[in-house]
Amino acid sequence: MSTNRERTDTASPGETVARWADSLSPVEAEEVELSEAVGRVLAVPLVADRDSPPLDVSAMDGYAVRWEDLQNRPAVLPVIGEARIGQPPLELAPHSAIRIVTGAPVPKGADTVLRREWVREHGTHIEVPAELGVSRGQDIRFQGENISAGQTVVPEGTLVTAPILGACAGFGHSRVRVFRRVRVALLVTGNELVAVDDTVQPWQLHDSNSWSLRGLLSMVPFLELRLLQHIPDDLDQMVAALTGALDQVDLVLMTGGVSMGDTDFVRPALEKIGATIVFHKLPIRPGKPLLGAMCHDRPVMGLPGNPVSVLVTACRFAGMVLRRLGGISRWQPRPTLVEVNDPEVSNPTLWLYRPVRLVEQAVAEFLPTRGSGDLVSAARSDGFVEIPPNTVGTGLRHYFPWSLL
Ligand SMILES: Nc1nc2c(c(=O)[nH]1)N[C@H]1C(S)=C(S)[C@@H](COP(=O)(O)OP(=O)(O)OC[C@H]3O[C@@H](n4cnc5c(N)ncnc54)[C@H](O)[C@@H]3O)O[C@H]1N2
Ligand code: MOO
């Protein structure tokens, strides 16, 4: 009997979720102060307000000269002035030099800068040695050589990094249009769960999934965890919690209760409130019962409750949905390749996700693991690799760190 009876196409699990993510729209945009912009996602391109550099400037401390005045060497040129940083350009008369500092505007008429260590300095004049090789334009940063006014520095959909924040300031943008933060609800299901600071009986578990997910979510600067709720395995309570959450957020993440047990109420609860199930059960291990649904126009993801399944499905699949909602244009994963030495023959039908530790650049080793309940092996790992069906032996695999970004 097929264990994947609901799957009708041959798309890989990554493609199935990517298609869904692609069908979603990013959240609305808002304008924020530059001081609030790092880690947010640009909703408009960052455009240069003027040329960069805005005029020709010196790249070195030295002397601004005319290249043609250097043609008979040794050349002796009187120093007729000093070009300072933050002051408008001076004018260079023929057969003379102007002392200049790094970043100062190149005087009108000058086309070359001589570094001071290349010439003999005599206070009122400089001597340019015969043996010096200088090209026209030497050590000048030309107006607009980085970018011209009106051109795009980075497109919309880019996460604002430190250099982008700097570029915003450099181009005079004191306020930035970004996508508003993605609002997320985390609904953790299970009667067996107790809080981390509660007494735990042998048949109970401390809720670790909400903490694993909070760890991942807290590293995403463009989201806001609006709601975190523990729900018992009860259909009515799950319906009520889901309905409440959907009113407040852009994405609902649920853990547990999504498999075949009689008390696995995630799917029945979603169906009861009119959700469309986009997929349920993907050919992956761990995390096979993963569920994606649309409810009240909002995506809901049911992550299988086992602790490693939650982490893997969040990083590999929920991350795509989150990045898409957040407005990131390159929301598809961009995993690096690592070499692994796989002692096993992989599964003929399932995509496997195995915790690994990076041992050197682009090389990873598998950690012993007892499967999807083994949070210890995940805690000792740096991330995981994806092993497609029927992939055997040593080779390059896609590596995903424990991250939603
Ligand atoms: N008959 C079948 N049974 C199961 C199948 C199947 O295909 N047929 N799939 C298995 C797979 S694979 C997974 S994964 C699990 C996922 O099931 P659920 O999403 O319904 O998860 P639960 O049953 O609620 O929990 C599974 C496991 O994880 C522990 N858990 C749950 N939540 C937390 C939490 N917040 N913190 C720590 N630990 C948690 C829970 O106690 C269970 O031990 O289903 C298999 N069964
Ligand atoms: O897919 Mo489950 O996560 O194997 O235990």
From TrEMBL:
**The MoaB/Mog domain covers which part of the protein?**
185-324
Question: Which keywords, in A-to-Z order, does the entry hold?
Answer: Magnesium, Metal-binding, Molybdenum, Molybdenum cofactor biosynthesis, Transferase
Q: What SMART domains does the annotation carry?
A: MoCF_biosynth (SM00852)
Q: Which reaction does it catalyse?
A: adenylyl-molybdopterin + molybdate = Mo-molybdopterin + AMP + H(+)
What's a Pfam family this protein contains?
MoeA_N
Matching entries from SUPFAM superfamilies are given as: MoeA C-terminal domain-like, MoeA N-terminal region -like, Molybdenum cofactor biosynthesis proteins
Q: Which residues form a coiled coil?
A: none
This protein's record includes keyword Cell membrane? no
Looking up InterPro entries in the UniProt record yields:
MoaB/Mog-like_dom_sf, MoaB/Mog_dom, MoeA-like, MoeA_C_domain_IV, MoeA_C_domain_IV_sf, MoeA_linker/N, MoeA_linker/N_sf
Q: Please, one GO biological process term?
A: Mo-molybdopterin cofactor biosynthetic process
Which GO MF term does the entry hold, naming one? metal ion binding
* Cofactor(s) the record lists: Mg(2+)
Q: Where is this region: Disordered?
A: 1-22
* Protein EC: 2.10.1.1
Pathway(s) this gene product operates in, as recorded in its UniProt entry: Cofactor biosynthesis; molybdopterin biosynthesis
First-tier enzyme category under EC: transferase
Q: Among the entry's GO cellular component annotations, what is one? A: cytosol
UniProt family annotation: Belongs to the MoeA family.
Concerning PANTHER family, the annotation shows:
GEPHYRIN (PTHR10192:SF5), MOLYBDOPTERIN BIOSYNTHESIS PROTEIN (PTHR10192)
Q: Which purpose does this protein serve, as stated in its record?
A: Catalyzes the insertion of molybdate into adenylated molybdopterin with the concomitant release of AMP.
* Name the UniProt record assigns to this protein: Molybdopterin molybdenumtransferase
